[in-house]
Amino acid sequence: MNLNSKQITIEQAQKDVDHWIKTVGVRYFGELTNMSILMEEVGELARIMARKYGEQSYKESDKGGDLADEMADVLWVLICLANQTGVNLTEALEKNFEKKNIRDKDRHQNNDKLR
Questions:
Q1: How does pLDDT run across 87-115, given as a tens digit for each residue?
Q2: Around Cβ 55, how many Cβ atoms within 10 Å?
Q3: Which residues form the NTP pyrophosphohydrolase MazG-like domain (predicted)?
């Protein structure tokens, strides 16, 4: 595992999560369970975002929420789903950049709402 390095690639993250799941976590939860867990984690992230950056006020139980930790939880479960479904996230992200560079080449530059 690459826990002490300062930078980790997406490929290495996929390998490290897989290793952790198979040694510490015993096995992956089912894909649908992990999809539900992902939505739960996104909800926890949304709660912090709504209170820190939005108009929502904090409840006592919301205090101490860690934005970075919630983002990492979302990433962890997304990596689990990628591993389970055979998705190479590095390749997927590279293809997504290509798609966006073609589809959105001028779109955002010409958007008056972004100025």
A1: 999 999 999 999 999 888 888 888 889 88
A2: 6
A3: 30-107
First to last CA, the chain: 44
* 37-79 residue pLDDT tens: 999 999 999 999 999 999 988 888 777 889 999 999 999 999 9
Q: pTM of the full predicted structure? A: 0.86
- Residue 38 contacts residue 85 (beta carbons within 8 Å): no
Encoding tokens for residue 3?
């826990």
**Which residue carries 């992990």 as its tokens?**
34
Q: How far is CA 13 from CA 8, 16, 43, 47, 85, in A?
A: 6, 5, 23, 26, 16
**Phi, psi of 87, rounded to the nearest 5 degrees:** -90, 125
For the chain, state the CA radius of gyration.
18
Nearest residue to 84 via CA among 1, 17, 24, 8: 17
